Every structure is written in C-alpha cells, then in structure tokens.
Amino acid sequence: MPGITLKLSGVSNPSLSRRLADELTTLTCSLLDKKPGQTMVMIQYVAHDEWFIDRRSLTEWGKNSFRLEVTITDETNTRLQKAAYHRAAFELLSSVIGNVHPHSNVHLIDCGAAAYGYGGLTQEYRYQHDGGPEARTAGA
C-alpha cells in the first residue's frame, strides 16, 4: 500500500498531475510489486522562488526539481527492487519535467508493519489475519 508524495517545482498543472499520478502508480506497482487499488498519490507544487538548493532558489539555478517520497511496508521489497525503482523513477520524472537540478531526489521510506496501514488496520494486522505471504501471492 504505497503512499506516494511528489513535490514538483512550478505552478499547479492538473494535466501533468494526472499524467504523473498514472505513470508513478504504474511504475511503483510494476517494480515494487504493489497493487494499484491500494496506491495513493499526492502531488504538490512549490514555486521556483520557494525551493532552495545550496542557498539558491531554483529560479537562480534556472532549473526544475522534484522530491518523490514513497512509503512502503518494511521488508516487502529487496535492495535490488529499490535500486531499480530509484533509477526508473528518477529517469521518468527527469524526462517528463525536464531541465532538473541533479539534486532532485527519490526516497523510499520503509515503514514498520505495526506502525503503517490504512482503513484503521496496520499492515501487521493484515499479515497476521490474511494468512501471511502465501495469501498475498494468491491474490489476498
């Protein structure tokens, strides 16, 4: 059940937001083996004059930037999956946004199953009551 938060430099753009919500959901579900129906995406825009890297605004840099944070349940993905996701997400966002500052970044945040969940239930509770990993691979 990934929670995806994307911060983009610039002004609100509903068309771009919809495109990126779709593409990030597809990428996240594909590379991290998650379910689209349990994937949440929030996109926020920050003005170039209010985004700073090394004490200079993006306006001064003449660049765009993004910060992608994806929360996932700890121990549900391998290091190789996470590395592949980092590369692919950076490439996707860089190509769509263009002219990105090299310090634009991707963060995968591993959350403990007992502290992370949705609908009032933790992921640990779901794991314990849905039959563990066998139930998940069977479509539970």
TrEMBL record:
It is an enzyme of class 5 (isomerase). InterPro entries: Tautomerase/MIF_sf. Keywords: Isomerase. GO terms for molecular function: isomerase activity. This is 4-oxalocrotonate tautomerase. Its EC number is 5.3.2.6.
